[in-house]
Amino acid sequence: xxxxxxxxxxxxxxxxxxxxxxxxxxxxxxxxxxxxxxxxxxxxxxxxxxxxxxxxxxxxxxxxxxxxxxxxxxxxxxxxxxxxxxxxxxxxxxxxxxxxxxxxxxxxxxxxxxxxxxxxxxxxxxxxxxxxxxxxxxxxxxxxxxxxxxxxxxxxxxxxxxxxxxxxxxxxxxxxxxxxxxxxxxxxxxxxxxxxxxxxxxxxxxxxxxxxxxxxxxxxxxxxxxxxxxxxxxxxxxxxxxxxxxxxxxxxxxxxxxxxx
Length: 261
Fold this sequence. Notes:
This protein has 261 residues and is of the alpha+beta class. It has helices at residues 34-52, 107-111, 133-149, 167-178, 211-218, 244-259, and strands at 26-30, 70-76, 82-92, 116-125, 154-162, 185-186, 193-194, 222-230, 235-243.
């Protein structure tokens, strides 16, 4: 499951330093040991638990997909603590029924003809690092794996927005997704559709869509107009599909920006 992001400062457990202007603040890694996998499962539980009101057994967010995925971690360089995380799983077209996304959307009917797809999910960022920079650097480091190692044609996943005490932002986000052009949207069926109701009141800040949604759209991703209601996490998931050549273009542009004096 892709990023489920929000601000819960009273649940911070990491001795993290304040963000610095340089990208050398961060260190990117791929998880290689069971001990590191348990560390990211604990990190996920610490982010998702307070946000979605979920109790995780043993303090770990674990599911059946973990052992078949590549796990990517961005650490705060000086403390060594995790600040951002996501996971990748490579599928051939005939394997898509085994994906996380296929449990929520009609992925097989829509993408079974695609020869090579990478699914991204469980994305989360520590509250102190949710300005967008850490997430961008995490993405920048995923590109070589997706492009050259996995040789994927498409990247897919689910991007989420939580429901509890968030009715106005959920509504405005959903409305903006309905207004996307045909080049920005997907007509793919949700297996548990949900239509947000008009809120009793809202504020200007409620009209901003979440940062991860913005990032996907900036990379020319396409979002499903239908939402899936995830009862366990009390959130709405939207299916995301992104052509890998668009990731490559974004990657090249970001590299140019970082090389400028």
